[in-house]
């Protein structure tokens, strides 16, 4: 292996506007502001993610609430803080309830003065925050199995599908599939228990599509990486390692979640997606990675709980699992950690020094630039980067600062492989050999 960089310059530090995953698997927020983190489990009176998943699946035994209404209320409580002064209800003296913006139903204020002072900023984001609040509830239908809707076989080859418009052109009329969900029992139960008025059918159809776009963005992004690195799934089976797999990929994951890849590459020789990360949770995907070829024309999903460099040393190097043709990381978040040493640095160096084709996705332009800066400091060879044509269309609230431009899953990507200096040396050597040959 090439010489490694032991200490990475502290070029970036986390901010309240950054989007990253904490060690527990949910999006982390400022320590005094609730959000999708350990705070959620405390608010829901749950001990671990097993109880949280059981709740999403409608199983009451062992959970900290007795009804869907209580679940939705407690989940909403985790987003309650004053948008202007950042105070929690418990921090107000005397304690009192927060009032919600009646337009977006997403932000709260502890007083009329706070709401008035925040309005000049909030009015710019209010409309989009309404969509975020709606999608946050509609996303529950993924856990019930209503979403995503069933997709059609591709009528275009993978090289011809360059955007969502191309993909949608092969799906036909979505109305029957979306209307079936709108008229379903789970949709009715959702708005009966959510504590807010049911939106118009048109708005709900658009929300259903946005939530589905986030689901399908993942396999389509993996397919984009296959195309960028010119891997051929028809000549031999491919193994993809999903490094840093978080709770969002594995909580409630199904073994069919990546089947869109088979639509993308019909008749392929076999694809395996191995989800690796310390946040991988129990479920259908937590099964042994393949050491030999998988089933032809099928996508096999497996999982490993642990850091990637540990997985490499304990499983891959011992030939208990196939080496990857491609490594992908959805929102690794290493730009927001004060030190890479114990987490991402060993993995980044492993990918670089073993010359493994890799692709990371980022939430927004800021995260993209900071991550790119770190990778350049590590002397990685950046093959290509830019906006992802298959980014999620579902807007996400930026942590504890709702009055910020929304971010989108898989919005940008960075493809890299090997050590930059090594590539330059090889190019120089090739040029020298060509010159010597011409002289001879």
Draw up the topology in text.
Layout: H1 38-43, H2 49-56, H3 68-77, E1 99-100, E2 108-109, H4 112-138, H5 140-144, H6 164-169, H7 175-182, H8 185-193, H9 201-228, E3 238-243, H10 247-250, H11 260-264, E4 271-277, E5 299-305, H12 308-316, E6 326-330, H13 344-353, E7 358-362, H14 365-377, E8 380-387, E9 412-419, H15 420-439
Parallel strand pairs: 3-4, 3-6, 4-5, 6-7
Antiparallel strand pairs: 1-2, 7-9, 8-9
Helix pairs in contact: 3-8, 4-9, 7-9
Shape, principal axes of CA atoms: globular
Q: Given this structure, which CATH class of the domain at 215-425 is correct?
A: Alpha Beta
Instruction: Please identify the structural class as seen in this structure.
Output: alpha/beta
What's the total count of β strands? Answer: 9
Radius of gyration: 23 Å
Strand order of the largest sheet: 5-4-3-6-7-9-8
Low-confidence stretches: 1-41
Instruction: Summarize model confidence as the mean pLDDT.
Output: 83
How do the helices and strands follow one another from N- to C-terminus? HHHEEHHHHHHEHHEEHEHEHEEH
Total number of helices: 15
Q: Please name the fourth-level CATH homologous superfamily of the domain at 215-425.
A: Vaccinia Virus protein VP39
Binned, the helix content reads 25-40%
Would you tell me which CATH topology of the domain at 215-425 applies? Rossmann fold
The CATH architecture designation of the domain at 215-425 is: 3-Layer(aba) Sandwich
Largest sheet: 7 strands, mixed
Report strand %.
5-15%
Distance between the termini: 35 Å
């Amino acid at each position: 292996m090439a010489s490694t960089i032991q200490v990475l310059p502290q070029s970036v530090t986390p901010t309240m506007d950054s989007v990253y995953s904490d060690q527990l698997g949910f999006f982390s927020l400022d320590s005094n502001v609730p959000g999708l983190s350990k705070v959620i489990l405390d608010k829901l009176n749950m001990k671990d993610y097993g109880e949280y998943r059981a709740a999403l699946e409608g199983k009451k035994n062992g959970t900290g609430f007795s009804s869907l209404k209580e679940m939705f209320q407690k989940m909403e409580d985790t987003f309650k803080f004053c948008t202007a002064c950042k105070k929690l209800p418990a921090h107000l003296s005397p304690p009192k309830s927060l009032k919600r913006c009646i337009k977006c139903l997403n932000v709260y204020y502890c007083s009329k003065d706070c709401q008035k002072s925040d309005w000049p900023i909030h009015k710019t984001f209010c409309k989009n925050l309404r969509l975020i609040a709606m999608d946050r509830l509609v996303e529950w239908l993924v856990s019930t199995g209503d979403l995503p809707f069933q997709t059609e076989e591709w009528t275009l080859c993978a090289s011809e599908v360059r955007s969502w418009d191309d993909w949608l052109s092969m799906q036909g009329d979505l109305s029957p599939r979306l209307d079936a969900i709108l008229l379903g029992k789970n949709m009715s139960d959702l708005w009966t228990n959510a504590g807010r008025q049911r939106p118009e059918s048109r708005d709900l159809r658009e929300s259903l599509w946005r939530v589905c776009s986030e689901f399908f963005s993942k396999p389509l992004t993996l397919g984009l990486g296959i195309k960028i690195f010119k891997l051929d799934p028809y000549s031999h089976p491919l193994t993809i390692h999903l490094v840093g797999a978080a709770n969002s990929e594995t909580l409630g994951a199904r073994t069919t979640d990546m089947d869109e890849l088979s639509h993308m590459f019909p008749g392929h020789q076999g694809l395996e997606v191995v989800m690796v990360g310390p946040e991988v949770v129990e479920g259908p995907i937590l099964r042994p990675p393949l050491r030999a070829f998988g089933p032809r024309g099928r996508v096999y999903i497996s999982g490993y709980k642990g850091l990637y460099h540990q997985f490499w040393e304990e499983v891959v190097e011992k030939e208990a699992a196939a080496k990857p043709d491609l490594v992908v990381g959805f929102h690794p978040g290493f730009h927001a950690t004060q030190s890479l040493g114990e987490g991402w640095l060993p993995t980044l160096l492993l990918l670089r020094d073993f010359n493994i084709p890799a692709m990371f996705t980022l939430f927004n332009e800021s995260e993209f630039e900071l991550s790119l800066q770190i990778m350049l400091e590590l002397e990685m060879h950046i093959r290509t980067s830019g906006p992802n044509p298959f980014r999620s269309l579902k807007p996400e609230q930026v942590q504890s600062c709702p009055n910020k431009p929304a971010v989108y899953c898989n919005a940008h990507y960075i493809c890299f492989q090997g050590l930059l200096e090594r590539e330059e040396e090889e190019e120089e050597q090739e040029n020298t050999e060509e010159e010597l040959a011409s002289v001879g």
